[in-house]
Amino acid sequence: MKNTDKHIDRLLSGYEVPATKSRREAWEQLNRKISANEKLPKRQPVRRINFAYYLTGAAAAAVILVLVLFNFFRPKEEFSNKQMAIQETILPDSSQVVLKTNSKIEYHERLIDGARLVNLDGEAFFSVTKGKKFQVDFPGGNLHVLGTKFNIRAYSEDMGRVDCFEGSVKLKINQQDIVLTKGQAVSFSPDHIEGPFEIKADNLTGITDNLYHWSDRPLQEILSLICAREGYQLSASESILEKRFTGSLNLTNGKQALTILTKAMNLDYNLTKNQLKIVESN
C-alpha cells in the first residue's frame, strides 16, 4: 500500500492541484472520469456503401427484365388455313411450312437465345432450315430439331402422328422421350403410343399435298384424320376402328375419300349433319 501511494504521488507531482483539493482528492476525481469514459459505448466503424456496385447490379437487372418482357410480349406471327387446298408458308427464318386444312400455327423467335418456337393446331409439313433450336408444341406433345423435314398431324390430343422424312426429330409425348430418324413415324393417343414404325421416305411428295399413304394402319387413324379435316363427329364400333388399312387416299374431297375407304373395307357410312356413322356392310 505504501508503494502504491508513492506511485500516485509521483504521477501527480507534475500537476498543479487546486488549493481546495488535496492530491488524493484530485486523483480520485481523475480516476472517476477515466472510469466514466471507459463505460461509454465504443464508436462503431462506419461502413461505406459502394453505390457503383449496387447501381451496376440494378442496371443489369433492369436490362434482363426489359429483355424478358420484350420477349414475352413480342408479337407472334400467325398463319392459318381454312381451305381444303394446302397453304404454303415461308417463316421468317426461311423454313417452309405446308399447312393442311383446318390448321394454324403461331411462330416467334425467342430473343434471349434465338430459339424458333412454333405452336401447331392441326397438321403441317415442315422443312426446317438449319440454325438455332426449332421447337414445335402441338396437342399431345412437342418436338425439337435443328434442321430436318417432318410432318405433324395433331388436331387434338385424342389422336396424332409424326413422320420424319429427313434428319431426325426428338419428341416428348405422354412424358416419354422418342427419337425418330429418316423413314420412321409414331402415332399416339392419351393412353397409347405406337412406334416408331417404318414408313416410305419417298412418300414425301404426297405428304406435301392432300395425298396420304398408309401401310397396315388402324382404321381409327384414317377416319379420325378425315373427321378432323371435315369437322365430323365419328361414331363406329371398336371392331371397325381396329381394322387395318393399307393404301393411298386423296383427302381433298372428304366424302369421296370416305366412299373409297368404306368400299375397300366392306363398310358403309351415313353422314347426317356432320355426324359420321360407320357400320358393317350388309
Assembly type of the chains comes to single chain
Task: Name the helix and strand elements from N-terminus to C-terminus, one letter apiece.
Answer: HHHEEEEEEEEEEEEEHEHEHEHEE
Helix/strand structural class: alpha+beta
Annotated CATH topology of the largest domain: Jelly Rolls
> Which runs of at least 5 residues are low in confidence (pLDDT < 50)?
none
Protein name: FecR family protein
Transmembrane segments: 51-73
Pfam families: FecR (PF04773)
GO molecular function: sigma factor antagonist activity
Which tags fit this structure?
single chain, 282 residues, alpha+beta, Jelly Rolls, Phage tail protein beta-alpha-beta fold, 13-stranded mixed sheet, three-stranded mixed sheet, 18 strands, 40% strand, elongated, membrane, Ferrdict_sens_TM, transmembrane
